[in-house]
Amino acid sequence: MPSLSLHRWFAERAGTLKDVERAHRSVRGSGPGARAATQQINQAYAVLLSAQFQGFCRDLHSECADHLVVPVADPDLREMLRDNLLFGRKIDRGNPSPGNLGSDFNRFGLVFWSLVDVHRSPNVARKAALEEMNEWRNAIAHQDFAASMLKAGRPNLTLAQVQTWRKACDGLARSFDDVLHGHLQTMTGAVPW
């Protein structure tokens, strides 16, 4: 059974992302106005995808913390332990980059990316795609594009590229869920979700 976080990723969060793809399809024509509009939608889609994946990761991290503190009988101690697991969490303010995710999930007593990388062979490439998505997210948010992101002096992000990142996020979300499920069950002896 998947976590509530994974269920939400493939239901509610996926629905939000599908809305952007529908908006992209609604742009008609191939002239300069249509190309400019689709480029803006592609950039918005990339930022939204990063934000939604960050939300998934934050939800999953919180769900893991909740599972770890459930056995603590004293409610004050339980709250203190949960607060400490969440304190200074990088994905509360930073992008869902491999470094931030590793730092946050490693708090649960595992070497997160080592386990994710071996969980499914495509995850190494998915992690690289996640890094690329976050580079584009930052370039868009700060309007500071590397030369490799430009074509004829303008940002050139395609719908296909954002869709590739989305597939990578889907695969990583499944692996994160599986890896953390197994780790938490081993740690606590109880099924986390």
Secondary structure tally: strands: 2
> Helical proportion?
over 70%
SSE series: HHHHHHEEH
- Globally, the shape reads elongated
Question: Which residues form runs of ≥5 with pLDDT under 50?
Answer: none
Structural class: mainly alpha
Strand order of the largest sheet: 1-2
Number of helices: 7
- Arithmetic mean of pLDDT: 95
Distance between the termini: 6 Å
DSSP strand content: under 5%
Rg from Cα: 19 Å
The largest β sheet comes out as: 2 strands, antiparallel
Structure in words:
By secondary structure, the chain is an all-alpha fold. The protein is 72% helix and 2% strand. The chain has seven helices and two strands; from the N terminus they run ααααααββα. The chain has helices at 4-26, 32-69, 75-86, 98-105, 112-119, 123-142, 159-188; strands spanning 150-151, 154-155. Strands 1-2 form a two-stranded antiparallel sheet. β1 and β2 (154-155) form a beta hairpin. The longest helix is centred in the first third of the chain and has 38 residues, at 32-69. The mean pLDDT is 95.
Keywords:
193 residues; mainly alpha; two-stranded antiparallel ribbon; 7 helices
Provide a concise account of the structure shown.
The chain has 193 residues and is an all-alpha fold. It contains 7 helices and 2 strands.
How do the helices and strands line up, and which of them pair or pack?
Elements: H1 4-26, H2 32-69, H3 75-86, H4 98-105, H5 112-119, H6 123-142, E1 150-151, E2 154-155, H7 159-188
Antiparallel strand pairs: 1-2
